[in-house]
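Please, structure for the following, as tokens.
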Amino acid sequence: MKRALISVYDKKGVIEFSKELIALGWEIISTGGTSKVLKEAGIDIIDIEEITKFPEILDGRVKTLHPNIHGGLLYKREDEEHIKTLENLNIHSIDMVVNNLYPFEETVKKEGVGHDEIMENIDIGGPSMIRAAAKNYKYVTVVTDPSDYSKVLEELKSEGDTSMELRRALARKVFQYTAYYDSLIAKYFNSLDSIEFPEFITLSFKDKDSLRYGENPHQKAAFYREINDLEGTIAGAIQLHGKELSFNNINDGNGTLEILKEFDEPTVVAVKHANPCGIGSGENLLEAYNKAYESDKISIFGGIIGANREIDEEVAKRINDIFIEIVMAPSYTEKALEILTSKKNIRILQIPNIMRKEYPFLDIKKVLGGILIQERDIRFLGEELKVVTDRKPTEAEMEDLLFGWKAVKGVKSNGVLLVKDKGTIGIGMGEVNRVWAVKAAIERAGEKVKGSVLASDGFFPFKDSVEALAKAGVTAIIQPGGSLRDKESIEEANRNGIAMVFTGMRHFKH
């Protein structure tokens, strides 16, 4: 008679599954709380102590760690020496393990949870048992996910046993499960000692969404979420309307949020292909939207819009005048939703705490052969702002310079943007030469460039950028400084009456 060892924290479906196994002629071994639940349901089980000949000890910390359990799981069924060993020691085979682990993830997320409680929810026997069963999948079926009960029963009923293919698939799930589980524990211990870059890096993601494709239709893709609090992120957004999000939607949407979180006053950010095409702040959201739209009326078409205030009827009407892929906001008025949802293909996301800024996540970039990990770029300025020209910026210019310095963080390097009245009017991005980025921004701004200010994510290596800006009518510049030729740029600014401010830090985005 075949035996299954059933010991689960998540008891969903376990009674029904056990009854089906009994009906198919299996014996069931069980432990602790699972044993109690099954007995109360009228299911005959063998208590673990009958197998181990040893009581559960240390408040249940030790119950399945025993040769009678692991011997029954790990022996090779066709190996005569293994069979003889089990016969001599009177160890019975265990042909199935049904187990899911203590809820470490749920425990560590609990508000006010103590260290002792977290430690007690590190499962020891469960991982040992399911890893043993998975290692011996050639002979043993291991089930860690209640959604797999039906697959196992279907094969047992139709074939009399589970297939090698199913057992291998279930074993694969075990090692993914235990690797994820251990990564959470490692992450917790790293947090205790504030270790940001440990000797070995383990990353924990879950809740996979299959995507239709990646950046291009020929690339397969999926979306996995962090396990931490997802409030204020696109991963935690509530979708109110529209088709499922694509790879590019998620990537561009995240870029939109990263920029939006820089601003506290009513602000709208428009993004296209991972770069902002318009950013505006104002007294109200409608004013902010108009500034973002006016920045680049063409590129905003088919883009993504993020707002840090509730979208009302007037703003919704303006958005509906053009085709927009996604709108993200903390909330929407009833009338605004009615207007926006009148279009079938728009995706509407609600992100309640959209202005949340602090996250424990690191920035990760994959390269061939490894990964690059860094802190998120959340600092605004260096030690202090320093005016390096003869002329100081006016109050209005300084307001626009600081707006631009926040906004340029979201532009791919080399990146610059022109600002007037807390709205972008021309953006130059992703150039290999900074003066090209400057010239692109000037060209896109057109006649509006006169009287504007410029923010640059990196220093000017030559004075040519200042020359171009002076000729266009730009009145003030904010940049990191630090070039060997800073003096030349400063002198050129002085010759043209341009105010220049150094920040002491750069904001490259690659």
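The mean pLDDT is 92. The chain is about 35% helix and 20% strand.
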